[in-house]
Amino acid sequence: MQFYKTTTDETLREIATHGNDKYPIAYYVDDICQFDLGFIDWHWHREVEFVTVSKGTVNCLIGQNRICLEKGWGIFINSGTIHRFETDDGGIMPNIVFAPELIATERSLIHDTYILPVLSSGPSYQILDPKISWQNTILMLLDKIYDKQEQNGDSLSPLNTLLLTTELWKYLFQNINIETVPANGVKSALHSSRLQIMLQFIHEHYAENIGLEDIANTANISKSSTLETFRQGIGQSPVSYLIEYRLIQAAILLKNTRKTIINISLVTGFSSAAYFCRMFKYHYKMTPAEYRKQTLHITPSL
Q1: Quick one: which of 215, 267, 263, 264 has its CA closest to 240?
Q2: Are residues 280 and 247 in contact, defined by beta-carbon separation less than 8 angstroms?
Q3: Where are the CATH 1.10.10.60 domain residues in the chain?
Q4: Coiled-coil intervals in this record (predicted)?
Q5: Is the pTM of this model over 0.85?
Q6: How many percent of the chain have pLDDT more than 90?
Q7: CATH tag, 25-175
Q8: Whether 160 contacts 201, CB under 8 Å
Q9: Quick check: 125 and 135 in contact, CB under 8 A?
Q10: What integer pLDDT is reported at residue 2 of this predicted model?
Q11: 182-187 average pLDDT score
């Protein structure tokens, strides 16, 4: 089985390009269980995203919110929103990710009047419930867009996709809550920049003996402010994220090298192999040795 991975930079911004400059939209059908760690990890992108669930259930994590989406439901995720997808029952989610310039170029009348207000003052996400008329309309438009994306031989597919996407955006713009003045806009931007600084620090120093105070010092804020920034940003504590990130790096080493479990525990920042094994089993529901055997992607040690 081929496994996929969401690649991000030190601020969790997704590195992948969705579409291209001439046609900035991409269509995916994501089987979450086929991703590297059994979930699509925390990431954000400048593009907006529309998701529907075609099989099972999908949990979308945004900040401290955990949104459970059943088959037939969907969600809009605004530009710059950090999010994560999980599933407990083999959830599959068709989705489109596109840059706002697909509909209108920046500084144009359409962009400034109908797109920019959503990006700057709209909600970070909007659940799409098929029982609500306008949201069901968006879900039906998404199904049509998916059909167009699958018609590779149709020369009119890009034009029809643009028309459908513009109509979809019209329904979104007309119905979501857009603040005249972004609520706590400056404060939110400050929280976001602080979070990115601290995430970068964790990604660069996870193998070292660091803790909450070290993470807080990188952004020059108190430990309590650090806890609140992480809670608002990704819905977990800094130490919890640090441990999870160490475990992810350990899983990569288990899968791709012949390093011993003791060595892996040390190079990923754990104080002891016993603690590492305990945390690994709690997180992955199997021991490091069982995980290594299951993945069967071992290559010679570097």
Answers
A1: 215
A2: yes
A3: 185-295
A4: none
A5: no
A6: 69
A7: 2.60.120.280
A8: no
A9: no
A10: 57
A11: 44
Q: Tell me what pLDDT residue 96 has.
A: 98
Outline which parts of the chain fall under CATH 2.60.120.280: 25-175
Q: Which amino acid is at 73?
A: W
Please, what sign has the CA dihedral across residues 153, 159, 165, 167? negative
> What is the distance between the alpha carbons of residues 183 and 189, in angstroms, rounded to a whole number?
11
Cα(268)–Cα(207) distance, integer angstroms: 5
- CATH of span 185-295: 1.10.10.60
Both tokens of 91, joined, read 């959830």
**How many Cβ atoms are within 10 Å of 149's Cβ, its own excluded?**
18
Decide: residue 52, CB within 10 A, 0-12 exposed, 13-18 middle, 19+ buried.
Answer: buried
Beta bridge partners of 62: 65
Cα–Cα distance for residue pair 141/237, rounded to 1 Å: 38
